[in-house]
Design a protein that fits this description.
- The termini are far apart.
- The mean pLDDT is 95.
- It contains 11 helices and 11 strands.
- The chain has helices at residues 19-32, 43-49, 82-94, 106-119, 143-164, 179-188, 204-210, 234-245, 267-285, 305-310, 317-326; strands at 6-11, 36-40, 52-54, 99-104, 123-127, 167-172, 192-194, 220-225, 251-255, 291-296, 299-304.
- The longest helix is centred in the middle third of the chain and has 22 residues, at 143-164.
- Helix 1 runs parallel beside helix 9 (267-285) and helix 2 (43-49) packs across helix 3.
- Bound molecules: 6-O-phosphono-beta-D-fructofuranose (F6P).
- The site of 6-O-phosphono-beta-D-fructofuranose (F6P) has 11 residues, from loops.
Length: 328
């Protein structure tokens, strides 16, 4: 196995609060071990175009508290083609990079996996996404901050919902995963959550109405996952249905959108990102390749990238029961 002297780090896919803390940790841990570090700008686009810049301990100063990613990010169509990946490989050779660290979500790690297999190139993935949808890690970088942002917004919406005796359908991100929806519903004391993982024959809207929406309360908050999987239709869809099927209710919709991705990372995300970034360099030192570094029961774990992206991460049924009982 080739000795590692130079690594490159990049962020890819949707930005997530804490990515900067991860870049800082990777950079400083690599430099601590005497390695050279390159930052790649705009994800796989920058990898293809050779948009590399050497990172020093100073270039990652004063970023741990900042949201977004100083390396910028992108979703690259070209990297999905063999020609794009060949150009990416050429860039890595040109800059003398021995290993690549990719901070991103499902799609980004899937790209990393294809590349690592095709070119037998050492790649380490770090879970960076607000969606928390990577298998093998209890948390992903950015999830905790986004969850807190959602809860803060829902608290505010509750004030107006309550004043007007309205039902609010609040749509949250998560792509096809319901972690943000389910846990924000519990944390904000919402009356229900509609998530893709809980699609059964029972209509979740019917269930919410039947469970006594407004029987004991004057207003209701329903958190709706943005996912359209399994017949889910987003907040607008459910609001329209209520308007048609239960015209006696006064309904409003709020789609939280990209504000969920912004803001200064929480202490939890900063610590997680710092631990995972440090562990990515330790993993390379141990000879690990093509794994995602995650956290399980507060311990660092190495998960084969193939497993992290392919396996479905289940939502604990207990969370569904907790919300169901506490929202009576
Ligand atoms: O994967 C992160 C995420 O924020 C998802 O929750 C959401 O579906 C998607 O990215 C939005 O992507 P874009 O920024 O391209 O609109």
């Amino acid at each position: 196995m080739k000795e590692i002297k130079t690594v490159a780090v990049m962020t890819s896919g949707g930005d997530a609060p804490g990515m900067n803390a991860a870049i800082r940790a990777v950079t400083r841990s690599a430099i601590f071990n005497g390695w050279k570090v390159f930052g790649i700008y705009r994800g796989y686009e920058g990898l293809i175009n050779g948009d590399f810049k050497e990172l020093t301990t100073e270039s990652v100063s004063n970023i741990i508290q900042r949201g977004g990613t100083i390396l910028k990010t992108a979703r690259s169509k070209e990297f999905m083609t063999p020609e794009g990946r060949e150009k990416a490989y050429d860039s890595l050779l040109r800059f003398g990079v021995d290993a690549l660290i990719v901070i991103g979500g499902n799609g980004s790690l899937a790209g990393a996996q294809d590349f690592a297999r095709e070119y037998d190139f050492p790649v380490i993935g770090l879970p960076g996404t607000i969606d928390n949808d990577l298998y093998g890690t209890d948390a992903t970088i950015g999830y905790d901050t986004a969850l807190n942002t959602i809860v803060e917004c829902v608290d505010k919406i509750r004030d107006t919902a309550n004043s007007h005796d309205r039902i609010f359908f609040i749509e949250v991100m998560g792509r096809d995963a319901g972690f943000l929806a389910q846990n924000s519903a519990i944390a904000a004391g919402a009356e229900a959550a509609i998530i893709p993982e809980d699609q059964t024959d029972i209509d979740q809207l019917e269930q919410f109405i039947a469970h006594g929406c407004r029987k004991s309360k004057n207003s209701s908050i329903v958190i709706v996952s943005e996912s359209k999987k399994g017949g889910g239709g987003g907040a607008m869809h459910y609001a329209e249905r209520v308007k048609n099927e239960y015209p006696e209710y006064d309904v409003r919709v709020t789609i939280l959108g990209h504000l969920q991705r912004g803001g200064s990372p929480s202490a939890f995300d900063r610590i997680l990102a710092s631990r995972l970034g440090y562990a990515s360099i330790e993993a390379l030192l141990e000879g690990q390749r093509n794994i995602m570094v995650g956290i399980d029961d507060d311990k660092i774990v190495y998960v084969p990238i193939a497993k992290a992206i392919k396996m479905d991460k289940p939502i604990d049924k207990e969370l569904i029961d907790v919300l169901g009982v506490l929202s009576i």
